[in-house]
Design brief:
2 helices; single chain; alpha+beta; two-stranded antiparallel sheet; 130 residues
Length: 130
Amino acid sequence: MSTTSKARATLKKLKKKGAPCTLLKPDGEAIYDESTDETIQPTIPHDGYCLVSSFNSALLDSGLVQNESVLSTDVKLICSFTDGAEPEDGKDVIVINPGTEDEQRFNVVNGKKLALDGKRAILITVRGRK
């Protein structure tokens, strides 16, 4: 089975078990809108699917999670994006259930990708923070 086939199969499984999501990547400089007194960051959306879970508190307490900056409110996101996009630490946002009343936004704190060929990410595990 090729990497592309495995990526499609993974996305299909996440679509069945997970929630729709959108990875938002910054695009250019932020723009200030005087009428709303807000700064807006233009973004490029990348659609996909995610599973959301919490970190095991026993792992946090025992120090097995290597990064001491993990907060008890951080979540673990297991994602795959239709175009193979990969989230960047400290820059990107993942929106779960975009455009619904259940929408949740998470800043990407860090992540790891599974790329069987060393290039295209099949699955990405991300730590998200509100």
